[in-house]
Write a structure and sequence with these properties.
This protein has 246 residues and is an alpha+beta fold. 27% of the residues lie in helices and 7% in strands.
Length: 246
């Protein structure tokens, strides 16, 4: 006995190969488009898409603002347009006629204004007033006027001016830098509240008005308001002398 695998007879094997080859050819023909037809036919389950119909064309005035229409011309505008279309001779004729019509109208108005005055003067009627009886009052009112006495002005004595006291001259002071408050270095009153314009006559340090003491002069010539307080003129080489008022 042969121990190898089973092999069908050659005739049956060839028939099976032929049937398989036929099936392959049929599938290729179904998948391949037919010659001469392009595009290839659609499969039976495919449906052609349906698109909505396009909207109708928009009519003027259907949507949005209506088309612009110029306003109608006024009477004087139509007259000006008509006058502008006329020829030069026609324009001259119209202008002369208008001027003559204005002159005639003015003369008519002037003559009509003079006629009423003439007619009024001719038709004047004189009316004589009738005498009306006058009633005289039988009572006579007499007025008595009393004369007021005349006042005679009396002369008022003129006051004599009182003699003015002569002011005692103040001793002149030697003001430093010509200040009007007579501040100097002569011993007197210490200055705790200097005048507002102090720094206009004296060289003040930057924080002069922040000090809480009296006015002193530093060794570099600047003035400080921290006299009597520790650390006065610390950035200006120390305190030199105090300033006094009198």
């Amino acid at each position: 006995m042969n121990s190898g695998p089973f092999q069908p007879p050659p005739r049956k094997r060839q028939g099976r190969i032929n049937r398989v080859q036929q099936r392959i050819n049929q599938r290729q023909q179904q998948a391949r488009p037919s010659q001469g037809s392009y595009p290839p036919p659609l499969p039976p389950y495919y449906q052609q898409p349906q698109y909505p119909a396009p909207p109708p064309p928009m009519q003027p005035g259907q949507f949005g603002s209506p088309p612009y229409q110029p306003p109608p011309l006024l009477p004087h505008q139509r007259l000006g347009a008509w006058f502008g279309r006329q020829s030069r001779n026609v324009k001259i004729t119209i202008g002369c006629g208008t001027l003559i019509a204005i002159l005639v109208l003015c003369s008519c108005l002037a003559s009509a204004g003079t006629f009423p005055s003439l007619s009024n003067g001719a038709n004047q009627v004189t009316v004589t007033p009738t005498d009306t009886p006058t009633v005289q009052s039988a009572v006579n009112f007499t007025s008595t006027a009393t004369l007021a006495p005349t006042l005679v002005p009396t002369a008022t004595p003129t006051p004599k001016p009182a003699p003015k006291p002569t002011p005692t001259p103040k001793p002149s002071c030697n003001a430093v830098n010509g200040n009007p408050w007579c501040y100097n270095f002569v011993p007197g009153n210490l200055i705790y509240n200097p005048h507002d314009g102090f720094c206009s006559y004296f060289a003040c340090i930057g924080n002069f008005w922040n000090g809480h003491g009296y006015v002193v002069e530093c060794n570099d010539g600047d003035y400080s308001k921290s006299g009597g307080i520790r650390g006065a003129c610390s950035y200006h080489h120390g305190v030199w002398r105090a300033l006094y008022s009198h």
